């Protein structure tokens, strides 16, 4: 127990007046009215004029500018409502206000939908012609992205049937999974004999307790909870696997992962390379958990000990100190980064105070290029909170710099979405570590390594589970709980090597990974993104000042190009094995430094 005096949380609230003054601001109704008129005008001007052989590039570019303008305007009331809601969730009026803005947005989308459909129906030759035209320069990437799924589209009548039946098909199975999982009760029998009924979140958090008997009890409760759900979850998952298989067959998609690679704008070879390199470096995971076992003083680690805490950082960091730490770390890397991050503090773009009715967690909302981003956080003076602030300010700098792009090119492409945030965290991590006490240093390193491993190696093992499950369902038909459990156990055990012995209970623990159900194959993006930044960060350090300028230029590009093209602009080939190896080298350094700190600490 820390004896340090508890600092009060900061009373920092954001100022949303850049957007609107209040939910009753007459500017909101005026915005919707103007936007609706523009949308009607847009439909009158362009309906039936896009998918025609005589379409001119100048017309298409103008259409993109017009629809971009409309989309940007209607994003503002929606963003304002979302930001108002997250700090005041208990107030039914803010909830209703948000719902209303979302519905207005949907109405507008219906009016504008023809445009996307016409683009998707354009002939390949016509698209080539448009992409080559200089007038289209700033919308090339957007056009390519809009056309991503064109080769796999069915006729309009077939698309309508699939869309409508999905509500009682795949979406219904996902919802059933979510409902049974969310309502499942986990009967936790504490080591002193008391029984409690816990939610999934609560029982999982007990796996992070320092007391091993508590963790054993949590594992028992979790496993028996999952076993009660087994029949439903296994059936739902089998059905979703088959649903995807049918959909892919009808659309002539070559394999299960292809849809995800397309939306991530990544080549199969790139993803395969990253996932295979992760497997190649599993020994790093083994090395870390071997030392974790020694620190915990256990003869053997099992699935019950994986999340056991190693050390708890004790230092408290006030919000003002955190601000200084982050700005200083950013500034030492690059002055532009400091300047962009400072704006958030100076101009009221952050909401940092935890308070009743406010949602948990943290995020950065980009909003629109012609306004500015906002950061949401719940700052509680812990070292973790400093890292979270650094993460969100990394996003913040990225979104501020991307404001040089127009709305359609504003957001980072998905695999690079966490680039600036993770990079910001790395900058602050080093600075925080250099000032911490020896014991807090160990705590910070342990937290960092476990986070990085969970993101890089674990998500990659989860991806392999999905690949094998989808393939097995296609080749062999329905799988039973034992078969899913077998694949799960093999893939996760391979990651730990001999350092952790996953017990029988663990076989059912794939059942709570909701991404498997609602967003197949999404998990590798986490692994990909983290590794990319680790490697990029190594380059930054090796290269010094000249790198930081190129990094800032990269952030300024927002989402105007594909991940390959964006990374090529800083001299990185994401298909090169050597580049990715840099990320593993960075992790090796973290583990080696942790080992060194531990031997120093334990011998003192
Ligand atoms: Zn993030």
List the SSEs and their pairings.
Layout (H helix, E strand, L loop, with lengths): L25 H21 L10 H30 L5 H30 L2 H9 L7 H7 L9 H11 L3 H14 L2 E4 L5 E4 L1 H7 L5 H39 L7 H7 L3 H13 L1 H15 L4 E2 L16 H15 L1 H12 L3 E2 L11 E3 L8 E3 L6 H20 L16 H17 L2 H39 L4 H16 L3 E2 L12 H5 L5 H20 L1 H12 L6 H6 L8 H26 L2
Bound molecules: zinc ion.
Characterise this structure.
- This protein has helices at residues 26-46, 57-86, 92-121, 124-132, 140-146, 156-166, 170-183, 200-206, 212-250, 258-264, 268-280, 282-296, 319-333, 335-346, 383-402, 419-435, 438-476, 481-496, 514-518, 524-543, 545-556, 563-568, 577-602; strands spanning 186-189, 195-198, 301-302, 350-351, 363-365, 374-376, 500-501.
- The protein is 65% helix and 3% strand.
- It has 604 residues and is mainly α.
- The protein has 23 helices and seven strands.
